[in-house]
């Protein structure tokens, strides 16, 4: 009877057999392998990421007539056979897979990359010739705001100088474009520069979100990859700042997987 129903499926218009996204399967199985790491923090993060990726596979596949996930799309199926990777290598694998993913899956996978990048540390990247002008404008605004905040930074001066240096380097690496004069930069929605720590955290958190958004909105694979790397680098800076305040950087909204 099952064979007859299977054959009938191909005769009826609009009927298709659910197939799991191979890129998501690969990422999920890698995350599951990494969840066996001796590093408990990394293992926990990768276990959560593996489940998020398997959930994404199921979401894309849809459900059967009785509301169940098709058998072909139920993961994990067995213990992973791939070798575990360090955070930096796992992050690179996510970047490599991103272009082949369904557009609706990219926000969740971008958050996974950002989590891994936060654990792996900063990465250098060469920008493509075509850039998102809004991001160049944003980075110039950040440099302006951080420069002003130095006058009020006190004991936080080393943190401000480090963040300012990284944003200046980023601006210098991007192709020059038309940006507003410093007086036109509006940072009024952020904590006052006098509240140095709060200002720094807010700016770096927004840097992550803006670079993520730029990556996800781009139709250019090169820029998407570059922008996501910069989101990860901003996340590294954010993590250092909030960790110094005794807070858990993994609780940041831009890292949510749902």
Tally of structural domains: 2
Radius of gyration: 22 Å
Distance linking N and C termini: 39 Å
- Relative strand content: under 5%
Shape: elongated
Signal peptide: 1-18
InterPro entries: Ferritin-like (IPR012347), Ferritin-like_SF (IPR009078)
Organism: Corynebacterium kalinowskii
Keywords: Signal
Would you give an account of this structure?
The chain is mainly alpha-helical and 258 residues long. It has 2 domains: 18-120; 133-249, Ferritin, CATH 1.20.1260. 59% of the residues lie in helices and 0% in strands. It has 9 helices and no strands. Helix 4 (87-97) runs antiparallel to helix 5 (106-120), helix 5 (106-120) crosses helix 9 (221-244) and helix 6 (133-149) packs antiparallel against helix 7. 35% of the residues are buried.
Write the layout of secondary structure elements.
Layout: H1 2-11, H2 22-34, H3 40-61, H4 87-97, H5 106-120, H6 133-149, H7 157-173, H8 196-217, H9 221-244
Helix pairs in contact: 2-3, 2-4, 3-5, 4-5, 5-9, 6-7, 6-8, 8-9
Write a brief caption for the model.
This is DUF4439 domain-containing protein. By secondary structure, this protein is an all-alpha fold.
């Amino acid at each position: 009877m099952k064979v007859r129903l299977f054959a009938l499926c191909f005769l009826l218009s609009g009927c298709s057999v659910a197939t799991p996204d191979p890129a998501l399967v690969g990422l999920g199985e890698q995350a599951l392998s990494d969840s066996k790491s001796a590093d408990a923090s990394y293992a926990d993060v990768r276990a959560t990421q593996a489940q998020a990726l398997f959930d994404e596979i199921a979401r894309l596949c849809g459900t059967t007539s009785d509301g169940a996930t098709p058998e072909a799309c139920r993961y994990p199926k067995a213990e992973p056979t791939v070798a575990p990777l360090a955070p930096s290598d796992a992050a690179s694998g996510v970047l490599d897979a991103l272009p082949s993913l369904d557009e609706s899956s990219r926000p969740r996978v971008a958050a996974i990359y950002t989590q891994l990048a936060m654990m792996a540390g900063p990465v250098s990247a060469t920008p493509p010739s075509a850039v998102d002008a809004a991001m160049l404008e944003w980075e110039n605004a950040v440099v302006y705001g951080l420069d002003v905040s130095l006058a009020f930074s006190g004991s936080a001066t080393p943190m401000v100088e480090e963040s300012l240096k990284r944003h200046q380097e980023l601006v210098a690496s991007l192709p020059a474009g038309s940006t507003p004069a410093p007086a036109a930069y509006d940072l009024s929605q952020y904590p006052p520069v006098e509240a140095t720590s709060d200002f720094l955290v807010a700016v770096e958190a927004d840097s992550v979100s803006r670079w993520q958004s730029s990556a996800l909105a781009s139709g250019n694979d090169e820029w998407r990859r570059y922008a996501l790397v910069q989101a990860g680098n901003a996340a590294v800076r954010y993590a250092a700042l909030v960790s110094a305040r005794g807070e858990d950087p993994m609780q940041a909204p831009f890292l949510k997987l749902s």
